[in-house]
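Structure tokens please, single chain.
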Amino acid sequence: MLIAFDSTQQALRAEMLLEYAEIEIDICPTPKQITAGCALSIHFPEEDLLAVHEVIVQERVEIRGIFKQIEDQYEAVDI
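Here you go.
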């Protein structure tokens, strides 16, 4: 799963908050299939989706969206 952002500031803030919540994440370049204002995205395991969503909502992190990779495409996930 992947979180895309509109700003680098929000990406770095989310990184700090998710690491503090002990969620395993990786910072990666935003895939070209996803239009976002920031070149950084956060990759995380699908089983952590609800925990990630909870952190984003509670801390009011501004995101472009959460995406799931299906083959070579990314589809937005509705929560």
